[in-house]
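Researcher: I'm preparing a figure for a lab meeting and need a structural model of a single chain. I don't have an experimental structure, so a prediction will have to do for now. The sequence is pasted below. Please return the structure as tokens so I can convert it later.
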Amino acid sequence: MNLINKIRYYLLPILLSVLPIIAVFFTIKVISIVIIINLIVFFFEKGIKQNFKKNLVYIKPYLIFCLFCILATLLSKNLAVSVKSLERYTSLLLLPIIIFSSDLDNKRIKIILKSFIFIMVGVSLFSIGKLIWFVNVYGDWIEVMRGVNKNDTYVQFKYPHLMWDVHPSYWSYLMIIVNVILLNNKSFNKVFSKKTALILLILFNLNLFYLSARIPLAINILIHVISVTYFFKEKLKIIVLLYLLIISSMILAYFQLPFLKYKIQSIPNDDRFFLWSLTYDKIESNDYVYGEGFGLGRLYIESELNNIKDPRIDFKGTEIHNQYLSVLLETGILGLFFLIYIYFKPCFSINSKFKIDSSMPLISITFLILIASIIEPFFTVIKGIVIFALFSSLFKISYLNNKKQFNV
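Model: Understood. Here is the structure written out token by token.
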């Protein structure tokens, strides 16, 4: 392989591995630039037309959802705002096209996954370094905040803010993806050795618990339970031991991490839930059918908050923080149908014998987005869209490659 071909072979996988991390840690402008670079590099791939035709059936779900979004935009009473919302879904179509139309064999997929995990290891080590620096340099201030808050939550609270004010939930979702890859190491043709995979699993699980994002932690535990049950289904003693380990880790984390304990105890009083009842009342008055308009949910909330006395104290935003309610508010029951469709269809299919066809990584990514959407606008923000579009496509093409290899 000459130098040009070697660059071509490695460049797209490395760029794809960087993209979800850029999406979470950087601004929309940087994300757009990286997506454009990926697109330019993609045009130098071999067999684009043949791969596109061959894998068109797997691209169709993303295309159908995007066509619905375009139609909803055209019917909107505020076209300018709706078009702005529509722009976010460009990556939902572009990334699957790039992945399914490129010549991604198992070796190149392994490059993507390994590069992604190595970068995430670097992010974790860098964040730990920044945390140690912060504790050493601002020790006096930490003591002041400990007195003000009358608890030890401040350092943990500050942790994600030291990383350019990254959203802790989406940082956690990236680490969950890492755990999915490591738990399914064999399915991905052994990205790492068993020992390395175990060490990395411990590292990322510790980081996840310290970050203390509640819903991501719940998703992570669920994925671990499903994986343990699936891989050791015929070894009851190992399953029981691993279940005990998971439960012990949860209990230990709850009592040893003050910020996690505080966040769990404050769930019933979360101010964000106020908007849920406000949103549901409007959905009900629309008979669950008529929406306010694609991408116009925030405008409706702003209007309602101007008309009533807002009782919230800590959280004063206009984001509903529930993807399902947001879609019902904006596009009614039809919009909710297409949302559920895009969540499931890329990851599951029914074969000729009416059996569900999927894999553990695809099942895991489905659980991630289904549960995350309860408390996050996961499919409204660009970072959530990029995470789903990239990894659902990548896990699918990996599964198809393995299936083809097994059949041969």
